[in-house]
């Protein structure tokens, strides 16, 4: 028996409608937007470190210590207030320790080399994140992703290349910045493990930041540098570090890690050094040659390719 014309027309229209798949992809789209926003927020960190009137480790400590009450208020106000699993607690303790090593060394690097170099070299973590994902979790990566990652890192080196130092403290600063990339990779993988184990973004950031502050406190006190901010502007600077870089930046990044693969997150975060280099050019007069603008464009294209190949 033939269907009525109205029924046939309805089925034709229904078949032409978009599937419900985009609705399921909405959390990933939101996570990608959060990741990019978090990268933009932490791009202000090297600028604020330069403006701080405390020692480098002290500014790293204040960045975390002042963020801890805000992060725990966020965590306790959220819906996910249940007890975290032991696996997530171990992962978050590791994340805090890795982040303490990353921040402590990176804040020194910012003082010894250019903002662009410190930020760019500190973001070579995609290499280690991708390698760890393949070796530890057997995560498969596509050729498109690898091309995108290689392009992003290559563009990053073009952006930093003219500023590489060959003598004095610049070499030390560049070396410290590159070393922080290893620790930042450990931090990202630990946060990813905690998020996969069920820890919320708020709890992940609050717990890891608390551990980081506790690790950095004795180191900051033993350093022969100023520990307490000595002026009102100094306090505003470390408060800005805490709110913008730690609460907003790392909070958004932790949210994104629950919905996106860690290797992809590590490449997308290369947006941060591009923006940091532009901010340093605007605020501190750190020169950016035409080739470096081209390098920044390559970084963004590489990030886009990695997203397509993820």
Q: How would you describe this protein?
A:
The protein has 310 residues and is mainly alpha-helical. The chain is 79% helix and 0% strand. It contains 15 helices and no strands. Helix 9 (143-160) runs antiparallel to helix 15. It is globular. It starts with a helix and ends with a helix.
Report helical residue fraction. Answer: over 70%
Give helix and strand order, one letter per element, not per position.
HHHHHHHHHHHHHHH
- Name the average pLDDT: 79
* Oligomer kind: single chain
- The assigned structural class equals mainly alpha
Helix count equals 15
- Beta-strand portion reads under 5%
Q: What gap, in angstroms, lies between the N and C termini?
A: 48 Å
Tally of discrete structural domains: 1
- Give the biggest sheet: none
Q: Low-confidence segments, ≥5 residues, pLDDT <50?
A: 5-21
- Overall 3D form: globular
Indicate the topology.
Blueprint: H1 5-16, H2 21-42, H3 45-51, H4 56-65, H5 67-77, H6 86-112, H7 115-121, H8 125-137, H9 143-160, H10 168-196, H11 201-222, H12 232-257, H13 262-268, H14 271-284, H15 290-309
The gist of it:
By secondary structure, the chain is mainly alpha-helical.
Give short descriptive properties of this protein.
mainly alpha; 79% helix; 310 residues; 15 helices; globular
